[in-house]
Amino acid sequence: MPSFLSSRIDASAQASSAADWLALGLDQALEDALPELIQLRRHLHRHPELSGHEHQTAALVAGELRRLGWEVREGVGCTGVVAELGPAQAPVVALRVDLDALPVEERTGLPYASTVQGLMHACGHDLHTTLGLGVARLLAPLAGDLRARVRLLFQPAEETAQGARWMLADGAMEGVQALFGVHGFPSLAVGTIGVRSGSLTAAAGELEVEVIGEGGHGARPHQSTDAIWIAARVVSGLQEAISRRLDALHPVVVSFGRIEGGKAFNVIADHVRLLGTVRCLDPEVHALLPGWIEDTVVALCRGHGGEARVRYREIAPPVHNDPALTALVEGAARDLLGPGQVLRLEQPSLGAEDFAQLLSAAPGTMFRLGLAGPDGCTPLHSNTFALDEGALAVGLKVLTLSLLRWMEAGGLPAPEARR
Ligand code: NI
């Protein structure tokens, strides 16, 4: 296997930065580590754990990190693990990966399929965890050379959008100056990554609307206040209000996924409950949305003789990728993978990612890691989701070199001074 930096070094051996030079030393280390890392990832895949219950996963992660010489704290934000390496007084650069699986019954037929009934790593967080451990392994021999304190955040409960908040509350982001993150992406080919400056994912919220009417006989609706009729007005009226009252340049999606109410075919319902999700990309619009939705829904209900109770729970703000850090990842990836393998994503996603919570404490960037093999890749969260394991080496290279380049650009002592 050729050196992953060989083309760059051949072209400009003298111009290669100290971080690249360090990365060159990592090439063999990566090749040596890969077989064990693949086994580790398969082990994690066999033993998925639900959000907030990642006890065995966290213990495995902590044990491996200690073995590698990292300073480890467990129980940071429930089952989170934080590990540090490098000079104590240096600036802190962090990498976040997630640990949890989903309540999905695996149907991949893989030899290392989940052994836990009803649970599956259907979002590839087993790969992310392995990437964190792989970075830990590659950086461990360089501890004396690191020009920043590297902090690894192994986060629980991403799927329920709780873990980032828990870790923040436990101080996991204290002192962090830059944060890197990664998520697998089935629509990109393995060997490629996708980057995007600015919005990467949407703000997401959970919306609950209770429509309160007054029951009566189905034959005489004029003597009652029909909550089902009003709920129908809410479902369609909210869509109309979005298109007429909000700026179309800042898209907002409201989707109701559950509706419940009524008792019998000939009884006017006095109560309907709607559950939905709200998505938008613009942080300012997102900040106004809960109040705007409540006012709109209450007005719609009152206009038809009913009342409304509206509850909005924020799931995550948008992930906003820092332009400079995104350019850093893009540069590292272009040098490692070739320019054609690094895609600038034109569109953000309306999915949500609680990495955004951590970005309230420091600038950061998350990139998309291609997962699709020659036959493509099934979607995230599906019971047949199976990624191409070639993504592991690609992700490790990009993450490790990004961290090293951040140190290089950090204005810390020149490499000559340390040798
Ligand atoms: Ni995920």
Q: What can you see in these coordinates?
A:
The longest helix is centred in the first third of the chain and has 29 residues, at 18-46. The protein has two domains: 11-201 and 318-418, Aminopeptidase (3-Layer(aba) Sandwich), CATH 3.40.630.10; 203-316, Alpha-Beta Plaits. Helix content is 35%, strand content 25%. Helix 2 (18-46) packs antiparallel against helix 10 (391-408), helix 4 crosses helix 10 and helix 6 packs antiparallel against helix 7 (283-303). The protein contains ten helices and 16 strands. The radius of gyration is 25 Å and the shape is elongated. It has 419 residues and is α/β, with parallel strands linked by helices. Strand 1 (71-74) and strand 2 (81-85) form a beta hairpin. It has an eight-stranded mixed beta sheet with strand order 1-2-4-3-5-16-6-15, with helices on both faces. Residues 123, 125, 158, 183 line the site of nickel (II) ion (NI). Nickel (II) ion is lined by residues 123, 125, 158, 183.
